Amino acid sequence: MQGWADGIQNALRYIEDNITQELDIADIAARAYVSAFHFQRIFGVLCGMTVGEYIRSRRLSLAAQELSRAEIKVIDAAVKYGYDSPDSFARAFTKFHGISPSAARENGAVLKSFAPIKIKLTLEGGNMMEYSIVEKAQFTVMGVARRFNSETSYSEIPKFWSEHYANGGGEKVMGMFGVCIDSKETENSSMDFEYVIADLYSPLKDIPEGCVTRVIPAGTWAVFPCRGALPKALQNVNTRIWNEWLPNCRGYKLGGNYNIEMYTMPADDPKDNYSEIWVPVEKV
């Protein structure tokens, strides 16, 4: 568990040491010994915000400290903390602090402070978590795909599902799977990932217009059952995977840059719904 905490803390320290430099998510994730794809999801669960939100909050907090001490001009603060123009800096600063950068230079200005995050994983005994380690052969899914930015995906992906069914998409793709794939596994994109509302692909059937196929490689999966009303049941298990299971797992590490949600038909009573989260893993 300590090694896991140290990896995340190394990433946070790297952010802090380079807060005024251009930061790349791949470089940050490397300090935590995981891929950028997995790091962004782990960070969101552990810290309650995206990596980008954290970096912006730290930069705006530090900029305010310098402005309040009259150590820097507004235009210089904008450049130092990564903004393209004084106007974009002023908008972000005002939204964060509630006052303009120039007002922050006045005596007695009230500003917000955002301290660096420190990760501490603690043992909370006795909680059982059900999972199984499963070997799966290669399989292919077929569905509708859309790219998402990690910073807005939690709100945008549910909208994607709603739009899919509202537009009659359930007649083409019922939605047995929600497949999240790192952009490097498909097309080149530095921050975005692809999400596919998918079913198992049958080579005996034509691929409907607007649909794609994606091959999921053979490998080892940690499969976590989720029971209860969606999306809460799924979100609760997802949080426990990163907070409890993975930090305490000794035999496996994260594998391929994708993860899968598996859904069954909705039950009459939402509390009886059953779904699963599949996380690719490798033996240590």
Q: Main sheet? A: 9 strands, antiparallel
Q: Give the tally of structural domains.
A: 2
Distance between the termini: 14 Å
Structural class: alpha+beta
Helix content: 25-40%
- Reading the helices and strands in chain order gives HHHHHHHEEHEEEEHEEE
Poorly predicted parts: 185-190
At CATH level 2, the architecture of the largest domain is Alpha-Beta Barrel
Number of strands: 9
Shape field: elongated
Tally of DSSP helical segments: 9
CATH superfamily of the largest domain: Regulatory factor, effector binding domain
CATH class of the largest domain: Alpha Beta
Summarize model confidence as the mean pLDDT: 88
CATH topology of the largest domain: Multidrug-efflux Transporter 1 Regulator Bmrr, Chain A
Describe the structure.
Helices cover 37% and strands 22% of the residues. The chain is α+β, with helices and mostly antiparallel strands. The protein has two domains: 2-104, Homeodomain-like (Arc Repressor Mutant, subunit A), CATH 1.10.10; 132-283, Multidrug-efflux Transporter 1 Regulator Bmrr, Chain A (Alpha-Beta Barrel), CATH 3.20.80. Strands 1, 2, 3, 4, 5, 6, 7, 8 and 9 form a nine-stranded antiparallel beta sheet that branches. Mean pLDDT is 88; it is low at 185-190.
Keyword list:
284 residues; alpha+beta; Arc Repressor Mutant, subunit A; Multidrug-efflux Transporter 1 Regulator Bmrr, Chain A; 2 domains; 9-stranded antiparallel β-sheet; 9 helices; 9 strands; 37% helix; elongated
Helix and strand topology:
Blueprint: H1 2-17, H2 25-30, H3 36-47, H4 51-68, H5 74-80, H6 86-97, H7 101-104, E1 132-136, E2 139-148, H8 153-166, E3 177-182, E4 193-200, E5 212-216, E6 219-227, H9 232-248, E7 252-254, E8 258-263, E9 274-283
Antiparallel strand pairs: 1-6, 2-4, 2-5, 3-4, 3-8, 6-9, 7-9, 8-9
Helix pairs in contact: 4-6, 5-6
